[in-house]
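TICKET #2291
ISSUE: user wants both folds in one file
ATTACHMENT 1:
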Amino acid sequence: MLTRVLRRGAVGTEFVVWTRGAENRFMKMKITVVLLLLAASVCAADEKKKEEPPKPAQSIAELQTQLEKILKDTKTPGVSVAIVRRDGPEWIAGLGKSDVAGDKPVTPETLFRIGSTSKAFASLSILKLVNEGKLSLTDPVRKWIPEVWFENQWEATDPVLVVDLLEHTTGWDDMDLREYAKQAPDSMGLREALDYDHHTRISRWRPGTRMAYCNSGPAVAAHIVEKITGQRFEDYVQQNFFDPIGMKTATYFEPKSGLTNLYHKDGKTPYPYWHILYRPAGSINASAKDMAPYVQFYLNRGMVNGVQVMPSASIDRMESPTRTWAAQQGVKPGYGLSNYWSAEGGFIYHGHDGGVDGGLTDLAYMPEYGVGLFFSINSANGDAFEKIGKAIRGYITHDVKKPELPVVANLPANAAAYEGWYQLDSPRNAMFEFLDVAGITKLRAQDGKVFLSSIGERNGVFVPIEGTQFRELPKKASDVASPMVELVLLKANQEGEFIQTGSGTTTMKKIPAWEAMAKLGGMAWFVLAVVGTLVYAPFWMLGGLSKKRRRPAERAIRVWPLLAVLSLAVTIGAFLVSVDDLVARLGNVTGYSLAVMLSTVIFAVACVAGLSSLLRASKSEVRRGVRIFSTVVVFDLLLGAVYLGYWGVIGIRTWR
């Protein structure tokens, strides 16, 4: 539930923004990557060599061998798999172990947590009511559930609509760690869950303009379903979708038997069962046998065994984003109604992925080719997830011709007007918005192409294909070109100039060059101050062992900056050691969350104390070089503290 910093469809410590390509992104990074950007001030990370992917399997037997090897190599206990054609399943299987300690195998009947893949049933339910004339996607949310709290300063002119809940265009912040950490009993209803904590449901920008993944939106939509039908949402889905589609054992609740354990990356330590607060956003347990007919349901455009469970037009609508600025300009790729576009290996897929603590899932299909897939692993191992996905996709496309790449067009006449600096303007999580400075990007147009450069990537190359739409060229000769739109130059409006990157989910706003330089320069100076303090500290500390070299007057202006840097290291360390249990450790009052709060406070206090010591130090007792160095370091760290304080990081209570 919680999207590759963050997986688009994740629900839990997928407090992550897993993304495809440049995606939904948030940005293409897990939260560990976000934290390592901070940790770069303390240590440098070596770049891992990428393994050459195996050749695509030519048969199911060969694919099974590949998957079993991946499980073994990555210490992933098990995987549930379904490969489906339009006329029926080709392969339904369970590989590996569902219970490592008990030596129980995964079977096609083993239930896995599918995370945010669950969200589509909220959209299907809303669409069914739309087809029955009971509501409209363009109805204001307040028309149906005025009792559910949210705040939108533009409500009079641009209300939050039902469609915004499902296309993630409400402008709301994603759930906070406190909401993720809540263990909701099966008896807790949706209204009670939505009342548990609502402060993230505040529109940060005008609804229907930008997309930012938000887990509470589908839950609010599900409550609308309950209000109209008078049924509990889970019962409505069981009656109208699980049963007609043939998902015989799928359930939103903890099953009494048949459920796999979910494991940490070590493949041995299990997670406890997570009773998700907003069940419609990511709580479904389902087997490969359940998911195979569900994939087929999409391939046959809503038809099951000759019965039209949902009109074909409803499936088309799910795959079509409408609300973002780019969608309003006619851009097709993006996030529709709980269904998004993605490009893999030169092919375009529709579907949704998902993640919970210890589980990762993907559901993807290509209606044009009549084939789709589902797989779910019972481990929090992202490497295994990527490799398994590539292996399965390699098999289902090994004998299929790739779609033709869109023809390169002329650069738009106004492309030069978009040159300049851009910053993320649609952050998913406000908590990590202070890190957006690391994603500042420069755009330039040259030789019929557009180039994007940032700290993480230099000169990503995009070529025009239609109007202001661009596709990205491969970074290496061995990479497969993507046929999908990856960059859109958006029409200027009263809010400024914007571009959209990734698969229709990341909006960036143009900022003045001086602002970009100030932010990037400030970040660079801050990192240098941190590194300089750490490098310098051993020398003066060792020098202090000799009575002849002790300089008491210089001690305070050295010690306070060092204490500030060490407290920052504690903050980063607390996050890093919490990654595998992020929700449990930081979403509650624990030693980890208290360490984060207290260390950020100590950082700020040490920065202020450092300045005070510097101002009080006698010029005659402090060497000139030491004073200059300390002045630069103290002011850099103090500016960093002011910046973090502005974003609410100082004294942050992650459990609130």
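ATTACHMENT 2:
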Amino acid sequence: MSTSRSNSIRGHALVRRKFTFGLKWLLLISVALSGCNLPQPTSSTPDADSQRQTEIAGILNPTQLNPPLVLPTLTPGSPAADTPAAPLERREGFLHYTTQQGDTLPALASRFGVPPDAIQSEATLSPAGLLPPGIQVWVPDVLEDVLPYDAPILPDSEVTYGPTVGDFDADAYAANAGGFLASYSEMVKDNVLQGPEIVQRVALETSTNPRLLLAFLEYRSGWVFGHPENAADDPYPIGFGAGTDTGLYKELMITAKILAQGFYGWRDGSRVELSFFGGGSARLSPGLNAGSAALMQLFGVIYPENVWEDHLFWTYSFLDFYRVMFGDTWARAFSVEPYLLDPTLQPTLTLPFAPGEYWSLTGGPHITWQTGTPWGALDFAPVTGEAHCAVSFRWVTAAAPGLVVRSERSVVALDLDGDGDEGTGWVLIYQHIAEKDRVAAGTWLAQDAPVGHPSCEGGQASGTHVHLARKFNGEWVGVGDPLPLVLSGWRAYAGERRYEGYLQKGDQIVNASPSGMSGSTIIRED
């Protein structure tokens, strides 16, 4: 994009867009959110553009924040002061790349558009495991029409509910900001929640960084610091306009889904192109990281190609806005990253039920939580002959010792490092745990201690079962390489479609079957 064209549209690019959805778009968002483009936004007025630009430049008065923050002084087109150097250089037909956290050889091959054996290095490259950060590799430069942004723009840990979240309090932040969000309330699944509670709930359940959710909400609506006219009557505060998916909770859930698609799709190499609102697409530079790909994906979904750059790369862009609200993103990241390293291994886990009991693998590998998360979850149902959706008398058990850090709405989160922080270390997520007899938060569980009873409570369940998934430092983890899921010696393998797949231990195989047919039964022997 030329400087003159960018400057000429700057005011329009900074104003919030509103969208309306047809049934086609609603289905795309609900089912896959895969490369979808939203309908054309409504036009804005010059006065609205000017007012919104003023808000973005100063976020009303950033010195009132606690602690006070100052907007960085940038010239048009200049990079952010805290952005790291690009890990990619072009030399004589080759791309020289420095590996980053979470990289694997298959994912790199997909991002560079080459077979794995075309990636050369003086170091030995694991064919499936995590590559140590900082390794130099060189790859034939075969990509065309790549976006000219090689440097990461947002750390991985700023997208997930990971180690940098710590004791951040969304409720306190919103109250201090004094905007409409602090007084907003909404009915969410039969409970009235305040605006900050909604942000925190979406953040925890989807494992999305609450800072990013707050910043995106403010950038799109002005709800965090401001009191926009008619905000109380606005069904789409972020502007997705997804039919009946109205209100803050569902709009934030859509935001989390899109971020997950970009983040985990980049992590495993399955999503290397960016689709823009209104049409058009472009290849992402292989020098990016998962956090940057996630943010670019989010902005590509809601902004046309001709203004997309302005929102991310020019003065008073979202990244400037984010730094004013929450400070230096890379300073926070450097204190905890890299956290995905070559020696990272899953701790020893057992099947989540008692030895000698008969259970069925009713769901093979499928999404860990919301759309876009990796296929990292398994479903197990007790074989008892009980009624279809009864609260079973059987117990789900702790697959490893740990501290219960969350026990609500059918979910139990078991923190295996015991530090009480769901964003650090390994965490097991159990879903569809009945309220009756469910273990309380704050309880330390020994190996095989009861967690609760499997049921149909929470989420979508067609029969009594438990949904088991893993997180590591806030990232949802798939069942395959580089961190395979192994339970009592049984390794999980994904099928071609969600809920298919199998468990294997030596020459024994248990196939997933939603109906619990013969061949899906598994007995824990240890």
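RESOLUTION: both attachments delivered.
EXTRA DETAIL ON ATTACHMENT 2: Residues 389 and 464 are 5 Å apart (CA to CA).
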